[in-house]
């Protein structure tokens, strides 16, 4: 059975109308029928009572003279009244004086309370079932002569009742039909408008056009609803417009910033190039002429002078290296990245082979596991491994046997790659300095280098959306960990694409 | 018959006098004793090569040449000069080696596109500089003395 709340308002309205009409009609028809029955009984009673009075009046002389025949003739006239079943005239002692029985009707004995002459009404009527019993006391000048008892049946009542019920049913049907017609008309003014509101709402939701107005005529609840809906639409429209404006403004700002960034990037690029060009030219002159000086004037410069010249040239070269490193660092930060799925196994092997070829005299043991592929710029990731491996080899230089372990694990949806060595290590309280440009934890007389390698590695990992961290102990070795997003087939995360300039 | 290598002129186009001196010293130390004509920028070089401006009265000479060209110079830079050299008939065939101070030089790509395959990134170390110059210039001189002559 359908839940009432699930039934459409249209059906509810019709149901409501019909039910109300039905109940009202039932009440009216019942009252009508009861009234009809009451009226019928009253008129039947009046009729019988007047017959009783007439017979009573006419029986006075017969009773006084005990002329039974005359009364019988009188009673016989009652056969014209088909309702009357039987009539009895009793004398003052209660003996049957005269009687009439409808011909063909079964004679039945019935008991009735014989009224006392000096008590109660002159005439009484009592209904028992569909029969009416009328008793009339006959007096003549206050002298009690006898009683007349007439029994009749209310045969017409059934017929009348049937007619009444028929009429009531017809009225009920007509009433119901009228109610339904009225409901249908009401439905037009209520549910149709509601449904129009619904379809308009759906249309607005589909088209996202909030700059419309819903017709809201009249003052009823639906009109109020429509008006409120219009107010809501106005609010949404205002909000949407301001959102659009804000978006457009933001877009313009992003474009401006992009242009600014591109300009800044180009300026930085030409600045870097100028630095390279203009800083190197005087260095070249210092180095070149110092060397020429030492060669051309070898006989005029003593050994101490030659040593000083060597120091000048060595420092010139070191400065040149610093300039190169700085340029490389800035290059890594600006370089456009091309994201692909990179086989870490392959590029690690490449970097390892190069590193081992350059350190053939060293005793180095490499333990490595199979690495998962990474999403990133291949050549930059090659630089990461090259730097980390050369670092590990460099800082195990004092060890008789260098042990380097390379592996990976997955954590929180990212791949963590690591490289551990058993080299010089460092004090963890300086770990923040490690990844900064030209920051070194060892003197260059101990381990050579400018301090750019790890800064480059850190920059590359950061540009890939990853992080890099380290664990180390003095003289026990260092471990470097870096995370990279796991390769998924859904494509490159947007945040990574945005970090690549141009 | 080959062109004698000694008769080939080296046209050095370089704005930095220190670099000019270093290059000349490097040539000396490599025993490359050809005549070096120094021009201080691209505009000057164009005037010289095409006999214009200050060099308009220069007598037409047919002596074979090689060019050592710095890319970054005031007035007319190396690239602009290259474009002119490569578009003009006879100068198109002069072998060129370009100098730059950085492998990042955006002009290097442009040079390659214009057909110049020889370049030297000026090293800070004088010995390396010497070696690089020796290698490039000797190759060019040999090329001019043999291949180019047979083409005439």
Report on this structure.
The complex is a heterodimer of chains A (502) and B (152). Chain A has 502 residues and is α+β, with helices and mostly antiparallel strands. Among the domains of chain A are: 4-182, Beta-Lactamase (2-Layer Sandwich), CATH 3.30.450; 337-499, Histidine kinase-like ATPase, C-terminal domain (Heat Shock Protein 90), CATH 3.30.565. Chain A is 55% helix and 17% strand. Chain A contains 10 helices and 12 strands. Chain A has helices at residues 9-64, 68-76, 155-189, 191-207, 221-296, 303-334, 344-358, 378-395, 453-463, 494-499, and strands at 84-91, 96-101, 123-128, 131-140, 143-153, 339-342, 364-368, 374-377, 402-411, 414-421, 468-473, 477-485. Chain A has a 5-stranded antiparallel beta sheet with strand order 2-1-5-4-3. Chain A is rod-shaped, with a radius of gyration of 61 Å. Chain A starts with 8 loop residues before the first helix and ends with a helix. With 152 residues, chain B is an alpha/beta fold. Chain B has a single domain (5-151), classed as Rossmann fold, CATH 3.40.50. Chain B is 42% helix and 16% strand. Chain B contains 5 helices and 5 strands, in the order βαβαβαβαβα. Chain B has helices spanning 17-29, 42-49, 78-87, 107-113, 126-151, and strands at 9-13, 36-39, 65-70, 96-100, 118-121. Chain B has a 5-stranded parallel beta sheet. In chain B, helix 1 crosses helix 5 (126-151) and helix 2 packs parallel to helix 3. Chain B is globular, with a radius of gyration of 15 Å. The termini of chain B are close together.
């Amino acid at each position: 059975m359908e839940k009432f709340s699930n039934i459409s308002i249209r059906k509810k309205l019709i149901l409501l109308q019909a039910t109300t009409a039905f109940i009202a009609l039932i009440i009216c028809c019942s009252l009508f029928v009861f009234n009809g029955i009451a009226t019928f009984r009253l008129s039947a009673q009046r009729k019988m009572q007047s017959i009783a009075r007439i017979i009573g009046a006419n029986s006075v002389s017969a009773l006084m003279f005990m002329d039974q025949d005359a009364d019988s003739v009188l009673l016989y006239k009652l056969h014209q009244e088909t309702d009357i079943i039987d009539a009895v005239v009793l004398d003052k002692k209660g003996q049957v004086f005269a009687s009439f029985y409808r011909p063909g009707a079964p004679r039945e004995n019935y008991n009735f309370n014989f009224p006392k002459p000096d008590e109660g009404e002159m005439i009484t009527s009592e209904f028992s079932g569909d029969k009416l019993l009328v008793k009339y006391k006959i007096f003549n000048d206050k002298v009690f002569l006898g009683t007349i008892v007439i029994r009749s049946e209310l045969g017409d009542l059934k017929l009348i009742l049937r007619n009444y019920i028929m009429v009531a049913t017809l009225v009920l049907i007509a009433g119901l039909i009228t109610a339904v017609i009225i409901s249908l008309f009401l439905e037009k003014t209520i549910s149709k408008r509601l449904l129009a509101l619904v379809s308009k709402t759906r249309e607005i939701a589909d088209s996202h056009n909030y700059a419309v107005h819903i017709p809201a005529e009249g003052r009823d609840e639906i009109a109020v609803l429509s008006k409120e809906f219009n107010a809501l639409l106005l609010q949404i429209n205002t909000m949407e417009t301001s959102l659009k404006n804000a978006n457009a403004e933001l877009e313009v700002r992003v474009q401006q910033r992009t242009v600014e960034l591109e300009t800044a990037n180009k300026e930085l690029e030409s600045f870097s190039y100028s630095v390279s060009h203009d800083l190197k030219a005087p260095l070249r002159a210092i180095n070149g002429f110092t060397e020429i000086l030492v060669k051309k004037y070898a006989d005029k410069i003593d050994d101490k002078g030659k040593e000083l010249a060597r120091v000048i040239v060595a420092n010139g070269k070191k400065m040149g290296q610093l300039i190169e490193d700085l340029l490389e660092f800035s290059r890594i930060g600006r370089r456009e990245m091309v994201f692909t799925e990179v086989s870490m196994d392959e590029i690690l092997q490449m970097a390892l082979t190069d590193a081992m070829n350059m350190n053939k005299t060293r005793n180095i043991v490499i333990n490595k596991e199979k690495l998962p592929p990474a999403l990133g710029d291949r050549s930059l990731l090659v630089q990461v491994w090259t730097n980390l491996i050369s670092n590990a080899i460099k800082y195990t230089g004092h060890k008789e046997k260098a042990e380097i372990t390379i592996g990976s694990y997955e954590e929180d949806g990212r791949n963590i790659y690591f490289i551990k060595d058993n080299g010089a290590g460092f004090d963890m309280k300086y770990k923040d300095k490690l990844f900064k440009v030209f920051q070194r934890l060892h003197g260059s007389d101990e381990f050579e280098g400018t301090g750019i390698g790890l800064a480059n590695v850190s920059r590359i990992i950061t540009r890939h959306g990853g992080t890099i961290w380290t664990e180390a102990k003095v003289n026990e070795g260092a471990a470097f960990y870096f995370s990279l997003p796991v390769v998924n087939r859904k494509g490159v995360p947007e945040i990574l694409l945005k970090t690549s300039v141009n | 018959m080959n062109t004698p290598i000694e008769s080939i002129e080296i046209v050095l186009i370089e704005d930095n006098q220190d670099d000019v001196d270093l290059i000349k010293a490097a040539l000396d130390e490599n025993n490359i004793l050809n005549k070096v004509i120094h021009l201080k920028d691209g505009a000057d070089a164009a005037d010289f090569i095409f006999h214009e401006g200050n060099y308009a009265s220069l007598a037409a000479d047919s002596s074979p040449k090689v060019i050592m060209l710095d890319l970054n110079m005031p007035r007319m830079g190396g690239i602009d000069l290259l474009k002119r050299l490569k578009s003009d008939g006879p100068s198109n065939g002069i072998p060129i080696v370009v100098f730059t101070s950085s492998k990042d030089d955006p002009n290097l790509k442009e040079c390659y596109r214009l057909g110049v395959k020889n370049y030297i990134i000026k090293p800070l170390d004088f010995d390396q500089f010497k070696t690089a110059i020796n290698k490039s210039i000797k190759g060019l001189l040999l090329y001019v003395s043999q291949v180019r002559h047979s083409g005439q």
